[in-house]
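Hey, resending since the last one bounced:
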Amino acid sequence: MTEPNATHTVDRNVDIARLAALHPQVFATWCKYEDIAVHFNELMMRWRLQAIGGLLTLVTLAGFVVGDAPSDEARYRAMLILSATLGMAWMGVALIDLCYYRKLLAGAVDAIIDLEVATTDLRLSQTIDARTKPAGRWLPLVFYLCSGLPLLGIALYATDQLQEPRPRAAAISNRGATVEPQR
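The C-alpha cells again:
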C-alpha cells in the first residue's frame, strides 16, 4: 500500500498530512483504492505493451514466411491467412483490454470517486477523471485500430490479388531465375 507522504498534495490547497490526520480511516481506504486503480492501470499498460510486442514479432515472422513462398499465388494465400489470423488475434487482445481490463480500472476509479465525493476534501481522482475522460473514450480504440487496419488492408490486398485472373506468360519468374513453362 502507498504510504501517505506529507510532501504530496491532493489539490493545490489540501495537504495530505492534514487529510490523513483529520480522516485516518477514510484516508487509508482512499490510499488502498488508489493502489488498486494503479495496479489495474499497470496491468492494462503491460497488456498493451506485450500485445504490440507480440504482434510485431509475429508480423516479422510472417514476413519471412511470405517472402519464402514459391509462387505469387502461394505468397498471397500466406498473406491472407497470416493477416486474417493476426487480425483475429489482435481483435481478441482488444476485446480483453476494452471489455475486461478497462472495466476493472473504471470500477476502481468509480469507487475512489464515490469516496472522494463523500469526504469533499479529496479531489485527486475526480480531477484526473474529468481531464482524461474525453480522450479515454476513443484513444484505446485508436490504439487498436492503428495496428488492426493495416492487417485488414493486407488481407484485402491479398484477397484482391488472388481473385484477379493472371495471364499466362511465356516464362514464369521465380526469385530472379527464369523457368520455361512445361509443355
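The chain has four helices and four strands.

Sorry for the duplicate.
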